[in-house]
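The protein record reproduced below.
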Amino acid sequence: MPLQIIGAGIGRTGTHSLKLALEELGFGKCYHMDNLISNPEQVTFWKNLKAGNNLDWDSFFTGYQSSVDIPTYYHYKIFMKQYPDAKVILTVRDPDSWYKSFNDTIIKKSKPSFGEIASTAVRLPFNPKLRQQLELFKFVGGYLKEFFPNGFEDKTSVLRFFNEWNQSVIDFVPANQLLVYDVKQGWYPLCTFLNVPVPSKPFPHSNTTKEFIARKL
């Protein structure tokens, strides 16, 4: 089954909550960066995608109906060519709130402490999956350099990237195919866009800063 939903929102805009919501609504499994971390060997697909090589899309996304977060959002235009009937969801967030969250999670994790480096180095020779994960994080770190060539500390340029990215998605995706969505809005706009019933359970809220930082390789 081809992907029905493509996430175009930057990480830390509620993409993990959206993943859980889409799976609850029947658009799962939903591919997320978490899936890639758990299966770091899949980085080969994303390397080939970024390099412009031919890909076996159907095999890679077997069982998935949606895909969100990095690396998907960066390649959403290619995804739209592959799945022209898919709907696109642009998750958004207050820019200052997003900046703090991104800095406190992804940026912080990209700068491990000496103790974390030492602990990883001890385990590395005996853990093939850990070696694969480190190779994955090196690859994903390349995206950060593209996004923020002046460094994340330059808040003005970082927020410019954030706002320009969101506007570029709005300008590119046909209006009838796009939902600009803040997860704080809950189920109603999402379910209306996808033409599905509103669940009786609360909207999922996951992957908070505290939860993100608590994760270990």
Remarks:
- The beta strands are 5-7, 30-31, 66-67, 87-91, 178-181.
